[in-house]
Amino acid sequence: MTVAIDGLWTSDPITTLKPEDEREKLIKRVSGQKILVPDILSLMPAWPSDLPPNPEELIEEVNVQIDEWLLTINIDKRKKAKHRALGNYTLLTTAYYPHCKKDKMLVLTQFLYWIFFWDDEIDTGGELTEDEDGTLRCCEETNQCIDDCLGPNPNYTPPVGSRGSVEMLYPILRDLRAGLGPVSTERLRLETHDYVNGVARQQRVRQGDYLPNPWYHFQIRVADVGVIPSITQNEYAMEFELPDDVRSHEAVEFIVQECTKITVLLNDVLSLQKEFVSILTYHPHKILFPLFMNMYNLSLHGAVDKTLDLIREHYALCVAAEERLPWSKTDEKFNENIREYIRGCQRLATGTAYWSYHSERYFKKSQVNEKREVLLDLSYVD
After folding, report:
1. Contacts of 296 (CB under 8 A, 6+ apart)
2. Which of 1, 101, 222, 302 could form a disulfide with 298 if both were Cys (CB 3.0 to 4.6 A apart)?
């Protein structure tokens, strides 16, 4: 039986092999392999995986607005074209917030575009991949934007000379704030800061001489991953505000963290083919499989099986935690808000999986069979 993640987290951030040896061995062991991955959604059978009525029509309407908006933002045309063609982030929005009012879908989709545009600047292959000083400056600008827009004295005018990925965030946060209560606004401010600062920390880990301990790496990814602001945005999408004492309740916090872990794990499985490029360019720090292989001397198949077992374990823990939620005996509206918040946490995982199968950001649709199994090919280079 696979041991639960929390029991293996460690303060030791690196393994002990020579960096050249461990990287070269990993590349040789995985290059050219193919692996059939089972239907990830089947690992979370009780969780919602629905779309709004007439999703194609809704997605088409929002994408018309997205295309107009993309013309106005200061992002490289090639990057905009790539993300528009392969990302299908409007589908991801509808999977995360299927019961949201249509007029809010645009802002929520714009935020997801921002996440991917901004992260790609620092991620492997981006403009700032090898530039730690540039990354820190980018994070400082972004953190200032977050405080400008979500702090106590809102200012929605970007400073002169702001980079495009920061400039575009100002009106997005302005519009999100307009639909959030003060408690949710402050929560979103802190969570978005955590995401931005976490990306910088992850870059430092990737640039290290040694491969990190997988549990240490997973710990910082879960703590700082950008999906947590998307949970809070359920309060914007569905027009409610979760009180702080409820959000900080042990069971609610546990479910948020478990859903985040599951989302990270399933994303690592489904993005393996795409992230293989990171291994080829000597940055096998982005996903967990190479780190599991390195630490435990596993095959690629063994590392994938380990990750799938972890998804099953954390799903079971998360389902069990629902019994500990702070239900009211008299206030059904309060209970419905908790249910909606928890459904939002669950859709973080199921929506990410559903979107991965129906966009082509990570693999071609032709690689998915009728059982929703994916044949990932590590001889594939985008």
Report:
1. 302, 303, 306
2. 302
